[in-house]
UniProtKB/TrEMBL annotation:
It comes from Roseivivax halodurans JCM 10272. Keywords: Transferase. Gene3D superfamilies: P-loop containing nucleotide triphosphate hydrolases (3.40.50.300). The keyword Transferase applies. InterPro entries: P-loop_NTPase, TPST-like. GO terms for molecular function: protein-tyrosine sulfotransferase activity. SUPFAM superfamilies: P-loop containing nucleoside triphosphate hydrolases. This is Sulfotransferase. The keyword Transferase applies. It holds the Pfam family Sulfotransfer_3. PANTHER family: PROTEIN-TYROSINE SULFOTRANSFERASE, PROTEIN-TYROSINE SULFOTRANSFERASE 2.
Length: 333
C-alpha cells in the first residue's frame, strides 16, 4: 500500500472547529485534560495579555514552535527550554491552531507567556509527570528573548490543513520564527500512541505518579489498555511524517532544528548547548546542568509493551526509509 499523504493528518470533526479551541485545564498533579473554549473569547484574552505582558515581551527576538508527532518528548524538551532564565514555552496551548483560527501572530507570544505562567503556578504537572526543573526560574522573567509553544503534533496537523501557515506566521510575526522537530524511534511513538487511547493509561500514570510495568500489564490483561499495536496509529504516524516533510519545505533550513530523542537523553548537556545556540540563548552552565539532571536515560522502550505483527513493522520500515529526518532509525545506522 502507498504511504498516506499530508492530507491524512488534517483534523476532522469537532477537532477541526474554527469556532472553539481545546485549551489545557491545569489542575495541579491531576492535570491531563483539555476544555474547549470559544475562539472569540480567546482573541479578547490575547489582546489583554498582549497589553499586560508588553514589558516582559519587549526584548523577545525569537518565536519557537515544535513540529512532528505526539509522544516524542516535546513536553520534556519544552520544559527544559522554559527553565532557561530568558525563555518561556507554553504547554499544550496549540498556538498554530489559534493562528489558523484567526488569533493575530503578534498576540501569540503573549498567550504563550500567560500559559507558561499558569502552568508553573499549577505545579507544572501533566499526565502524571512533573515538568519542573529544580532551581530553575520558571515563571516571570525580566529579560525574555525566546517565547514559543511545544504542541508539535497539532502544529503539524494544522499545517497539513493550511499549507501556507508557517509562511504566513513568519511574515506576520514581529519575531523570527524557528522550528524544532523531535524524532523518536517510530515504533516507540506508535506504541505510546496506542497505549494512550481511551486515556486509562494516563489516569493510571497520574494515580501512580508514573505507572509501573506491573500496573500496565495488569491493565492490559483486564482489557483497559491495549495489548497490541493499533494499525490506525501506524497510519496516523505515517500521515504526520508526510505532513512534517511538507512543512519542512516551507521553513528556511537555518530555522529548522532536528533532535533525535534518544541522542538527547544519551547526552543532554551537549544537546542543550546545541539547542541554546539554535535559539540564540546563552548556554548558561547552571541552566544546562540543572536541566540535564531532569533527563532520564532511555530505559524501557514502549514498543516492548505491545505485540506487533511482521506486517506492522514492515509498514513502519517503509516510512523510515522514506524520510530523511528518520534516517537515524534505519537498520545498520
Amino acid at each position: 500500500m502507498p504511504l498516506p499523504g499530508p492530507e491524512a493528518a488534517i483534523p476532522i470533526g469537532a477537532a477541526a472547529s474554527l469556532d472553539d479551541h481545546a485549551m489545557p485545564a491545569f489542575e495541579g498533579a491531576a492535570s491531563r485534560r483539555h476544555q474547549r473554549r470559544p475562539v472569540r473569547r480567546i482573541r479578547r484574552e490575547a489582546w489583554l495579555h498582549a497589553l499586560r505582558h508588553a514589558r516582559a515581551l519587549a526584548g523577545a527576538r525569537t518565536f519557537v514552535q515544535f513540529a512532528g508527532w505526539p509522544r516524542s518528548g516535546h513536553s520534556l524538551i519544552g520544559a527544559l527550554i522554559d527553565a532557561h532564565p530568558r525563555a518561556a514555552i507554553a504547554h499544550e496551548l496549540d498556538a498554530m491552531g489559534l493562528f489558523h483560527k484567526g488569533v493575530p501572530a503578534t498576540q501569540l507570544p503573549a498567550l504563550c507567556l500567560a500559559n507558561a505562567r499558569d502552568f508553573t503556578r499549577a505545579g507544572r504537572y501533566w499526565n502524571g509527570f512533573s515538568y519542573a526543573v529544580p532551581g530553575a526560574p520558571h515563571g516571570p522573567r525580566p529579560q525574555l528573548s525566546v517565547i514559543g509553544d511545544k504542541k508539535g503534533d497539532w502544529a503539524t496537523r494544522w499545517s497539513a490543513a493550511d499549507p501556507d501557515l508557517a509562511t504566513r506566521l513568519a511574515l506576520a510575526s514581529k519575531l523570527e520564527t524557528r522550528w524544532i522537530l523531535v524524532t523518536r524511534h517510530p515504533e516507540d511513538n506508535v506504541a505510546t500512541m496506542t497505549l494512550r487511547q481511551g486515556r486509562h493509561y494516563d489516569r493510571l500514570r497520574i494515580a501512580a505518579r508514573g505507572a509501573t510495568s506491573e500496573a500496565i500489564r495488569a491493565a492490559q490483561l483486564d482489557g483497559q489498555i491495549p495489548a497490541a499495536v493499533d494499525d490506525a496509529m501506524i497510519t496516523d504516524y505515517q500521515a504526520l511524517a508526510a505532513a512534517t516533510a511538507a512543512l519542512k519545505t516551507r521553513v528556511p533550513a537555518g530555522n529548522w532544528h532536528e533532535i533525535p530523542y534518544e541522542r538527547f537523553t544519551a547526552a543532554p548537556e551537549a544537546e542543550l548547548e546545541r539547542l541554546a545556540a539554535f535559539l540564540g540563548l546563552d548556554p548558561d552552565p547552571a541552566w544546562r546542568d540543572a536541566a540535564a539532571r531532569l533527563v532520564s536515560p532511555s530505559g524501557t522502550q514502549s514498543r516492548a509493551r505491545l505485540s506487533w505483527t511482521a506486517d506492522q513493522r514492515k509498514e513502519l520500515a517503509k516510512t523510515i526509509a522514506e524520510y530523511d529526518f528518520l534516517a537515524a532509525y534505519r537498520e545498520g545506522t
